[in-house]
Every structure is written in structure tokens, then in C-alpha cells.
Automatic annotation (TrEMBL):
<dbReference type="InterPro" id="IPR033121">
    <property type="entry name" value="PEPTIDASE_A1"/>
</dbReference>
<feature type="active site">
    <location>
        <position position="212"/>
    </location>
</feature>
<keyword id="KW-0378">Hydrolase</keyword>
<protein>
    <submittedName>
        <fullName>Aspartic proteinase</fullName>
    </submittedName>
</protein>
<dbReference type="InterPro" id="IPR001461">
    <property type="entry name" value="Aspartic_peptidase_A1"/>
</dbReference>
<dbReference type="Pfam" id="PF00026">
    <property type="entry name" value="Asp"/>
</dbReference>
<feature type="domain" description="Peptidase A1">
    <location>
        <begin position="17"/>
        <end position="331"/>
    </location>
</feature>
<keyword id="KW-0645">Protease</keyword>
<dbReference type="InterPro" id="IPR034164">
    <property type="entry name" value="Pepsin-like_dom"/>
</dbReference>
<dbReference type="GO" id="GO:0006508">
    <property type="term" value="P:proteolysis"/>
</dbReference>
<keyword id="KW-0064">Aspartyl protease</keyword>
<dbReference type="InterPro" id="IPR021109">
    <property type="entry name" value="Peptidase_aspartic_dom_sf"/>
</dbReference>
<dbReference type="GO" id="GO:0004190">
    <property type="term" value="F:aspartic-type endopeptidase activity"/>
</dbReference>
<comment type="similarity">
    <text>Belongs to the peptidase A1 family.</text>
</comment>
<feature type="active site">
    <location>
        <position position="35"/>
    </location>
</feature>
<dbReference type="InterPro" id="IPR001969">
    <property type="entry name" value="Aspartic_peptidase_AS"/>
</dbReference>
Amino acid sequence: MPSDGTSVSATNILQTYTMAVNIGNPPTTYSLLIDTGSSNTWCGAATAYNPTSTSNDTGSTVSVSYGSGQFSGEEYTDQVDLGGGLVINNQSIGVASTDEGFQGVDGIIGIGPVDLTDSTVSSGQPVPTVTDNLYQQGTIQTEMIGIYYAPTTHSGTPNGELTFGGIDQSRITSDVTYTPITSTSPASNYWGIDQTISYGGQQILSSAGIVDTGTTLVLIASDAFQAYMQAIPGSKVDQNSGLLEVPANQVATLQPLAFNIGGTTFKFTGTDQLLDQSLNEQFGGTRNAYYSIVSDLGSESGQGLDFINGYFFLERFYSVYDTTNRRVGFATTANS
């Protein structure tokens, strides 16, 4: 089956994905980090913003803090072209005057829920996201995004895809399982879901958390992480990388890590739980060691945001972000 919606390429830079976004007319191309965990779109971190005939300085300032960085600057509206005919008129963008934590990218394309833009702009108004505007301007018929990511060991590999307004059926090997946005706060402000995680058939967490392309690892609440670590004899957190090091003699006996979402179980094999060794040094580790891509969120469960299914999860499963029906979907792929 062909895809419904319009698909554009995404580039794997080994800890996250970026996409090329053209802003202005004539356009400047920016490499923007794809973030389902925030909702403002901004540029100017590396490549300077170039005002053109379509630029409008709104007179407002904009400021957003992230888990690992921040930016602040001026709000403009401008023409934003995502490729494939996905052109947005009068999209609110931030133009960074200061930023930290964004080496190697020009900014962010924020595709989280619109409420995350509350209080980010000095005018006090929420800022429609790129997806909101594609829908409101009639470019897509359903306000949803399908995301296909895939593992690679080479930075700059254009092996990902975002489908605006639909799902690329050619990428999935199962039906899509949908689950409603969780009612548990603060996860409910994001693409938040309820999920049960088990290791080797033993439940280690059943709670609310978020699906976030802007986070690299699979992060779980500290008590769940302790249970996971204790179930892998001899494993310990490596002081250099911060990753969980798995002893070589335990690699072959790693048990499945299962994520139950909406009644469907999505499984990580032992191999799926391990960082590809060719990437060890990039993550601050030692070349021949074995590291888990599951790590400690840094807070105990029961806080209302007890896990983050990040980039390494999304490389294994197709994900769907459906604003129209307030739900998140998952399906298996060739990488599952």
C-alpha cells in the first residue's frame, strides 16, 4: 500500500534525527532537530537567520528551556517549507540570539502538543505548531505524523522518514496499536502514554511517561532501573559514559525487555538492548565493552512522568502522533 499523507526524509546523526527545513523566500536551509518533546520551531543556532520578503518580526520574544539546553531570541513569522509540497505560511519561528546545547544543529522543529508552547512567547499566546498549521491551512487532511526511524552506525544517514497527515504503510509490519494520551500529569502535557515494562517476564514499571524523539536513550524511573540492573548480574553504571555496562558473560543471556502499550507487547531482544559497539566511544565508553541503551531517568516512579521512550526505542518501532484523536500509535517494522 502507498502511504497516505506526505513523507519527507529525516537524517540519523546517531543520537537523534534532523531534517532539512527551508525558511524564507528565497529560502535558507536549516538542519533542525526533530523533537516530539517540545513544540516551538526555531533556528539560528549555527546558520544565521536571514530575513526575506516573507519574514515578519512580531515584536515578541521567545524563550524555551529543554532537558539539556535552552534558547531565547525574537519571534518571527515566516514561510516554512518541509519538502514534498508541505509549505506553511506565517509559521511562528524563534530566531535564536542565545542558545546552549545545540552543537551541530541549527535549532528544533517542535512537533509536540501545542500546549507546550504556553508561556514561551512574550505575547502570552500559544503558538500553533507546524503540524497545526499544515492542518489549518488545508495541506494535510488529518493532524497526525507517522515517524519511521532505523538503526545505523554512520552519522548523516538519511534513513528516517516523517509522514505528515498519515502513515507510511510500506514501513510497518503490523497493525498500528493506538493508546490514548495519558490522563496522568505531567506526562499528559506531552505525547504521554501509559505503559508497562517487564524484563524477563517480571514487571519493573507500570506507569505514565512520554514518547520523545529528542531523547536518545530509553529512560526509566530509578527504582525500575535498579530492578533492571539487579536482574543482570554484575552490571554496573560506567562512570565515564554514564551508561549501564553489561558484563561480557551476561550478553548471551539477556532476557527480553517488553513494553506493553495499549494491550500490545513490543519487545526488545537482548541485542536490541545493547549499544552497537562501534558507537561505544562516541557515547564516552570503551571500545570493547557492552552497554545498555536503558538508563536511569533520575527520579523515583510515581512522579507522573516515569519513563521516556527515546530515539533507541523509536529506531525499533514505527510511531504515530495523532493530534486529531489525542492518541499515540505504534507498529513493528523491519527493525523490530
